[in-house]
Amino acid sequence: MRRIFSMSSLLNKGSIQRRVSKKYLINAIRPYSEDLSSPKSPGPLLQYRKLVEQGRLQHDPYQERVALALENLLGRLEQYEKEMEDYHIKLAEWEKNRETERRKLLMEEAELNHRGDLWTSVNKRKSELLERWSFRRKSEDIEPGVGKWVSYLNREKKLDSLVGRRPTAPPAPKGLYIYGNVGSGKTMLMDMFYSATEGIVKHRQRFHFHEAMLKINEAMHKLWKNQVEEKSIQSSISSWIMNLSFDMKAKEWLAAEERYKQEVQMKNILPAVADKFLVDRQAGERGASILCFDEIQAIDVFAIVALSGIVSRLLSTGTVLVSTSNRAPKDLNQDGMQREIFLKFVNKLEKHCEIILVGSEIDYRRQIAQRSVYKVHYFWPLDGTALKEFEKMWCQVINQAEGEVTSNTVPVMFGRTLEVPQSCNGVARFTFDYLCGRPVGAADYIAVAKSHHTVFISDIPVMSMRIRDKARRFITLIDELYNHHCCLFCSAATSIDDLFQGTEEGTLFDLESFQFETETEGAKLRRDVLAEGSVSLGGAPAGITSMLSGQEEMFAFRRAVSRLIEMQTPLYLEGVRSLHPYFQRKHQSFKNCSYSASTVHHQVSH
């Protein structure tokens, strides 16, 4: 059976007429018609009940329970923000005093070494033979680095007695770990909470799994690069050591102690990455931190090690975590990879988060397809009529974009770029093979999704084992387009329901599940993080590879189908202009211009 659909005007005045029948109720989708960027967004429970009253959501006791828990958490955040502001003021003062005292101790030790060198030079001729013998014995008896390590520990103990121990952070409210089936409303509820925290908590981030892993990878690379090039070390030396009135030998000793301190701090890189993951404290910002983490997964060894190190550090330092997943924490690691590290991670989650199941077995996104009147942007099969309608839609959207279609490049993580063959004012067009048939991955898809509010993808084939790698990339692509709230148009060989049911060389049940594609240097970073953390590859045959079960694969396929369905509904489409980064940047630019103009007017008038 052939289906051809079109859409009215996506870009004209930024709205689409909603034609959802009131007698049909929708639960899986986010409240797209609400302006989630508003600093005075209502709480998640109020948002949820309002949408139920309007008939846009069907009441679901599981969803309401989660909304209530999120509302209670929101109510505790305002006081926690104040407590964390006070804590960071005390912490900054403590760090400043500790650094001042540490430098004093170093200078006292350098002075003693300096005097010792002068005395040695006076008696050099008398004791040259003894000195050489003593130096030889010292080198033989003392293991390299032990002396510096002992000096470092002794100095830290002295600092504890002089300045006191690090201030204790106030107890953080328990976050939430929300899990359940595909389409049960987990992301919708988390996004309601995230929007409501605007104006309450300064440091707030929302990441999907792919983007979070890539950011961790990138941050690790930067830290290691700085360590190798010693840029930060040299700058810290030149700022105070080189101006001291010591001879060069004493300055070199001070520089070596500073270098050793930074090397010690770099031994465990994941906490260092975590400290920069949400906010740069050196920017002067104080207050609480919130991390909303969508689709938390444990797909391979790197994910387990990285998540354990990063999330555990964030939770230990007071960050409030709200996350979603298809599985309960203890069920994330189906293959038993790095069990000891994983169990510590689970224990940390259960200690700092309330674990809540959204227990509905209904995929509400699929109910949209069955019960509402909507316009579809998915054209199939790949015959003359469907392709003609697809081209017609491309021309219509380009005319509305009011620009010239050209090729351009977008920046990608790790210093790479991706060429966009056809682009026009936030609208882009690709073939399936261009995006999924080459060695590209989540970093490229994130770059495309952030830069383009509307994406056309043509010639999508039926997925089977013959093109399993392409299928995996396609699932990741859909995740990122959905996560960034892009408008998507597709031309495909078959319907959405049959897209992953190809039989050529076998069905996709044995397909290696999706995971974010690593860059060349990213693959090296995966090995290095295991080596730095003294983590073996036991339980991970063939190195660091995805080892997910067939059940995990089915989660991935079901989620992709569910999201493709939702991305064609009016309720999703009407949120593109308010939620997509392209329009948010334009809105922020307009606000900045308005603020500048009003400031100039105020100055001139006075």
UniProtKB/TrEMBL annotation:
Domain of life: Eukaryota
Assigned keywords, A-Z: ATP-binding, Coiled coil, Nucleotide-binding
GO cellular component: cytoplasm; mitochondrion
Pfam families, A to Z: AFG1_ATPase
ATP-binding keyword on record: yes
Keyword presence, ATP-binding: yes
Coiled coil location: 63-111
InterPro entries tied to this protein: ATPase_AFG1-like, P-loop_NTPase
Molecular-function annotations in GO: ATP binding; ATP hydrolysis activity
Signal peptide annotation: none
Similarity annotation: Belongs to the AFG1 ATPase family.
Name of the protein described by the UniProt record: Lactation elevated protein 1-like
Encoding gene per record: LOC107918302
